[in-house]
Amino acid sequence: PEAITVQELANRMAARGGEVVKALFRMGVMATLTQTIDADTAELVVNEFGHRVKRVSESDVELGLEGAVDAEADLLPRPPVVTIMGHVDHGKTSLLDALRKTDVAAREAGGITQHIGAYQVTVEGGQKITFIDTPGHEAFTAMRARGASVTDMVVLVVAADDGVMPQTIEAIHHAKAAGVPLIVAVNKIDKPGVNLDRVRNELLQHEVVVESLGGDTQEIQVSATKAMNLEKLLEAIVLQAEVLDLRANPGRGAEGTVIESKLDKGRGAVATVLVQKGTLHQGDMVVVGAEWGRVRAMLDDKGRQLKEAGPSLPVEILGLSGVPAAGEPLTAVEDEGRAREISEFRQRKLRDKQAAAAGAARGTLADMMA
Ligand code: GDP
Ligand code: MG
């Protein structure tokens, strides 16, 4: 594995060398600035400083792209981002629809809801919750494959009359692999003769222990179609969010992740981006995966034009050079020169990768014909 000096690691994080030495000391590692540490230790330090470990760092071009470490005082509470998962026909779509209708802000805004792959609701107490609204499992898998983590928690929908099914188990595995907590929404409780104990025990077999069985996973009984107990589910999400103490610095350049994208006949490349750090402004220069552009317009899930979007807000943006894939990162940059430079570098890397893959495929074909 790669090694790195303490000073170099500090430089890459835009942190003080002394701070890194201190962090290492707290982890029981004595090292001076010029000493090297292994990649695993470096990764722990990076996490300690609140950074995501960088997936693409083969080039100086991308150095510093993630910006400096946020000071504790700059971190403000942000809404939770929730993904709904569960077996087919257990009621994911119905629940997403029902939850969207609970939005107290939408009533006042009187806007026309539009599907942009994610939406945000304001609950009775004023707290906000963002729901990812794209088909759960594929989106989750695609994003994780790209190293993107967008969701803070998973609401696992289990139909009371059907119990734990293959995709329920898959969802449990996804959540565990991503290290995000689960809330169980036992759905369809309006149906006659449902057996809640059976569902709980089936979950237990997959190491999801609900509170009534002495565990710490919240379980809420709901009916998506009859709109029963939706407030309770929202409360459970708010409670879980408080436990997670989710924070971000809104006062820096924006960083986010593409949730959904398309090529629109009239509007060109359109991408829904979840802002995760900082604030995205109309007019900002951004790189998104291998694409770039100036944010020409920003729309929320209520079809309203926005001038700015802070952490955890999903927005549809216009103005990109092309259509980025779901899971690609967005970063605001200083100017067009920087945007072009990073974009060109990434385009070139993509072409190299494609050429290598094509070469490998030709090789296989040649082998087969030999
Ligand atoms: P998905 O495949 O998980 O997205 O499930 P859907 O939301 O499409 O729901 C599948 C079926 O279950 C539909 O016919 C829904 O009307 C029905 N359904 C969803 N939630 C409930 C519920 O709470 N009660 C009842 N009785 N039916 C429900
Ligand atoms: Mg569905």
TrEMBL record:
The UniProt family comment states: Belongs to the TRAFAC class translation factor GTPase superfamily. Classic translation factor GTPase family. IF-2 subfamily.
Question: Keywords assigned by UniProt?
Answer: Cytoplasm, GTP-binding, Initiation factor, Nucleotide-binding, Protein biosynthesis
* Function field: One of the essential components for the initiation of protein synthesis. Protects formylmethionyl-tRNA from spontaneous hydrolysis and promotes its binding to the 30S ribosomal subunits. Also involved in the hydrolysis of GTP during the formation of the 70S ribosomal complex.
Species source reads: Teichococcus coralli
The record places domain Tr-type G at 77-247
- What is the top-level taxon of the source organism? Bacteria
One cellular component GO annotation, for this chain's record?
cytosol
* Protein name per UniProt: Translation initiation factor IF-2
Compartments in which it is found: Cytoplasm
GO function terms (MF aspect): GTP binding; GTPase activity; translation initiation factor activity
Record-listed GTP binding positions: 86-93, 133-137, 187-190
